[in-house]
Amino acid sequence: MVVAISARFEKKMEVSRAVILTGSNLGNLRAQLTQAAEEIERQVGKLNGCSAFYETAPWGNTEQPAFLNQVLIVETEFSARTVLERLLKIENLMGRKRNEKWAPRTIDLDILFYNDDLINEADLVIPHPFIQERRFTLIPLVELMPAYIHPKLRMSMSDLLQNCTDFSEVHRVDS
Predict the structure, then answer these.
(1) Beta strand pairing call for 45-50 and 67-76
(2) Mean pLDDT of the residues in the chain
(3) What's the domain count of the chain?
(4) The CATH number of the domain where 80 resides is what?
(5) Which of the listed residues 24, 142, 147, 156 has the most CB atoms within 10 Å of its CB?
(6) Catalytic: which of 8, 17, 42, 108?
(7) pTM of this structure
(8) 145 lies in some domain
(9) H or E element: which one contains 145?
């Protein structure tokens, strides 16, 4: 006798949304970000949104080349911890060297948001703690999700951008 399994007993995979900032200021910047997006789709989850590319002044250590940045929205079945581990693996695959803080890099992948979760661990803080201080992060976020409310600061991305005190140059790069 064959027994059908009721749909209510089937295990559903939880789907989460990770918002990731990509950046590069060494090598072929557009190629680096394109490769990173492809690897993220392969190793983390489906891309559900991609901002334009933005040429941005360096932040933190300003004595280095300009960056190219992009924000990605990814649908994933992985936990925030696993997403971080996979992003670090992609950075390593793409030649990222971590010799000094805010140094030039082939690729930088940061989790900005993971659902509306608040995570505060030694090596994983979500939302990313500097979102509200960085125009190069806020401008592509506003492009993709202007009304999204920061789960800790309780302000929309548009409002955070309006209140941002960083006036670094950020220019949209058309194809």
Answers:
(1) antiparallel
(2) 90
(3) 1
(4) 3.30.70.560
(5) 24
(6) 108
(7) 0.89
(8) no
(9) none
Q: Which of 86, 110, 134, 135 is labelled catalytic? A: 110
Q: Is residue 41 part of a domain?
A: yes
Is 116 designated active site?
A: no
Q: Residue 118 is part of which domain span? A: 13-130
Is residue 86 annotated as part of the catalytic site, yes or no? no
What pLDDT, on a 0 to 100 scale, did the predictor assign at position 175?
Answer: 61
| Rounded distance between C-alpha atoms, residue 167 and residue 163, angstroms | 11
| Active-site annotation holder among 17, 30, 96, 159 | 96
Q: Catalytic residue among 105, 116, 154, 159, which?
A: 105
Cα distances (Å, whole numbers) of residue 7 to 1, 13, 14, 156: 19, 13, 16, 38
Q: Domain for residue 68, yes or no?
A: yes
Distances (CA, A) of 133 to 59, 80, 105: 10, 23, 21
Q: Where are the alpha helices (DSSP H) in the chain?
A: 29-43, 80-93, 135-144, 157-163
The per-residue pLDDT for range 87-101, each reduced to its tens digit, is 999 999 998 777 666
Asked if the structure places residue 171 within a domain, the reply is: no
96 labelled catalytic:
yes
